[in-house]
Amino acid sequence: MKVLELKIPPVALTIIIAFLMWGFAELFPATKFSSVWNIVIASAVSCIGVIFSLLGVLEFKKEKTTVDPRVPDQTSSLVITGVYTLSRNPMYIGFLFMLIAWAFYLSQILVFVFLPLFIIYMNWFQITPEERFMMQKFGEEYTLYMAKVRRWI
To answer: Within a domain: residue 21?
Structure first.
């Protein structure tokens, strides 16, 4: 399965999962739920997701390192400040929050099954290869960072 490592950009994966969720919701309308809070929850969670992702990008830009996770060899510095003190992957957390918001917006209970699939895919094919590279490039400094800061939250 190494063929899938670092192949699908996380933004593209998020969009693909969002379309799959929408298609699933359309195929199974009987499992819809309704609440006056769906839009409120979706809006709040989406805002949190966008903020997390943007803060992650801003920290990378501040350190003048690549934001493209498919090319970890272009990483010029280890970013461990700002939102990276809360999570090693705030951009991915942001994408997950946006998918959670989308699930609430769709108001379809079955689409929530795509959320753990997103996490599993990201862990296996994106985060694990990134971490291998970061260990090689930054060694002890990255090991200490991993010991202090969680992968997700």
So the answer is: no
